[in-house]
Design goal:
Layout (H helix, E strand, L loop, with lengths): L3 E4 L9 H10 L5 E6 L11 H10 L4 E6 L7 H7 L3 E5 L6 H10 L3 E6 L17 E5 L14 H15 L4 E5 L7 H7 L3 E4 L1 H4 L4 H9 L2
Parallel strand pairs: 1-8, 2-3, 3-4, 4-5, 5-6, 6-7, 7-8
The structure holds D-xylitol-5-phosphate and zinc ion.
Length: about 220
């Protein structure tokens, strides 16, 4: 399977959301990456349910919803109703992560777990067989357009090995600072899904940039 490209809506033009969603529909992108920030777990607030529903109304590809919020159990059903296909929670934000993962899957969504740059991949060992995706943060979450953290390559290698030995089906998603200079090395190291916000939306031709990121 070729790697998946998930443009991050966080960097889209919110006054022209339908236009940007349709650009992604027509492009070679595979998923929509949708970042939800609560101003508590991360020092920024992005957007909530009305915007997710508006994206879903026009999107023809799956919504990969990344919750950067405390205590996400409160909102699993609401994100299902808003149109999430993949729902990712932060390991650092869940006291009963195993229960949260089961809750996401019981609602018929794919379950993802995100880890911050300081969190060891070893923390995933006892849930890796239960989840569909690991979102490995390659920047500290909260903002688009930040610099990629190089230690991520080492973490991808360790996670790839864990997935191999446990025979897990989890995809490795890289989120933050992905660009045209590092995407190939990320895929070669073992990444399956690349999120890209700034690289796509600040380029002169976003659809062409998505096609570039898809090239092996
Ligand atoms: C950061 C978000 C990312 C962000 C990535 O907290 O989780 O999804 O949109 O943006 P870029 O690709 O600009 O680093
Ligand atoms: Zn994200």
């Amino acid at each position: 399977m070729s790697h998946i490209i998930a443009p991050s809506i966080l960097s889209a033009d919110f006054a022209n959301i339908q236009r940007d969603v349709e650009m992604i529909n027509k492009s070679e992108a595979d998923w929509f990456h949708v970042d939800i920030m609560d101003g508590m777990f991360v020092p920024n607030i992005s957007f909530g349910f009305p915007v997710v529903k508006a994206i879903k109304k026009h999107a023809t590809k799956p919504l990969d919803v990344h919750l950067m919020i405390n205590d996400p159990d409160r909102y699993l059903q609401a994100f299902k109703d808003a149109g999430a296909d993949v729902l990712t929670v932060h390991l650092e934000a869940c006291t009963h992560l195993h229960r949260t993962i089961q809750g996401i899957k019981a609602l018929g969504m794919k379950a993802g777990v995100a880890i911050n740059p300081h969190t060891s991949v070893n923390m995933l060992l006892d849930v890796i067989e239960d989840i569909d995706l690991v979102c490995m943060m390659s920047v500290n979450p909260g903002f688009g357009g930040q610099k990629f953290i190089e230690n991520t390559y080492r973490k991808i290698g360790a996670l790839r090995e864990m997935i191999r030995t446990t025979k897990s089906n989890a995809l490795i998603e890289i989120d933050g600072g992905v660009d045209l200079n590092n995407y190939k090395k990320l895929v070669d190291t073992g990444a399956n899904v690349l999120v890209a916000g700034n690289t796509v939306f600040s380029s002169a031709d976003p659809a062409k940039t998505i096609a570039e990121l898809k090239k092996i």
